[in-house]
Amino acid sequence: MGGSGLSKDNLRGLALALSSSFFIGSSFIIKKKGLKKAGATGIRAGSGGYSYLYEPMWWAGMITMIIGEIANFAAYAFAPAILVTPLGALSIIVSAVLAHFMLKEKLHIFGVLGCVLCVVGSTSIVLHAPKERDIESVTQVWDLATEPGFIAYGVVVVFLVIFLIVQMAPRYGQTHLVVYVGICSLMGSLTVMGVKAVGIALKLTFEGLNQFVFPQTWFFTVVVIICCLVQMNYLNKALDTFNTAVISPVYYVMFTILTIFASMIMFKDWNSQNASQIVTEICGFVTILSGTFLLHKTKDMGTSPTTESLPALSNS
């Protein structure tokens, strides 16, 4: 397949990404049930409460998400972000199907079609994904991260996150889904770049080349921890305020677009591919977006208990 194809590392990354999608998709539902139970006896997370920290169901969902994130973490060490990140669409399918049965958030025929489109688009991207570039040291990743293009991207992301948290969240967080999800998605794009760096460091360390003697490895680790904490806080607020089946696709779309954009700037994933391969991947991604749109619209047609929050999405 020229500059692409399923190399051994890509296959490992694919298997890890698929298992990650299952665990993460399930965790949305388990955490949602935990948040609802906690909200019935204490201050809801969407109103600034943290009673969910005492709810075993929420912790079960958190553990499930951690398992999924560990698998996702490992996937980034073997495969490029442009392969791993779009496969997150499969977690939307898992979340939508489980929400249909466990939360009574009905999945209509267009939702089923949306699931099919997500699978088709994911398959297209998998078959035409670029091979992972050879990196022999975490210092190489540091050199990529400190190029002017990515530094500019990072500064813009941090500025937007601070603006959303300080100015927008207090005013519009409860009515506009894009505020909480925007914070999570922007931070998520930096998280993935950090995760990829730490994943590569661990991979090389296990191969006998200790990367934890470099301060850059610890810097990337701190970035991942900070970004994850911010994401977790605002994802909990979003889950407690809006419909799960709306959060999942919107979060996926924003997070994936920003992550692929960040990866193109930092790792230059498309440099080794020809125009037809890039266009095929873009078409696959557009197909996935169409599927997530249908999954959202099918919830617009439904009668779930939190549909009063849906109109806020159209205001974004």
Automatic annotation (TrEMBL):
Alphabetical list of InterPro entries matching this protein: EmrE-like, Mg_trans_NIPA
Transmembrane segments: 12-30, 51-71, 77-103, 110-130, 150-170, 177-198, 218-235, 242-266, 278-295
Pfam families: Mg_trans_NIPA (PF05653)
GO cellular component: early endosome; plasma membrane
Cell membrane keyword on record: yes
Membrane topology according to the record: Multi-pass membrane protein
GO MF terms held by the record: magnesium ion transmembrane transporter activity
Keyword Magnesium: yes
Keyword entries, A-Z: Cell membrane, Endosome, Ion transport, Magnesium, Membrane, Transmembrane, Transmembrane helix, Transport
Subcellular location field: Cell membrane; Early endosome; Membrane
Primary location group: membrane
Protein purpose: Acts as a Mg(2+) transporter. Can also transport other divalent cations such as Fe(2+), Sr(2+), Ba(2+), Mn(2+) and Co(2+) but to a much less extent than Mg(2+).
Protein family membership: Belongs to the NIPA (TC 2.A.7) family.
Subunit note: Homodimer.
Protein name per UniProt: Probable magnesium transporter
Source organism of the structure: Phoenix dactylifera (Date palm)
Upper taxonomic lineage: Eukaryota, Viridiplantae, Streptophyta, Embryophyta, Tracheophyta
Gene encoding the protein: LOC103710632
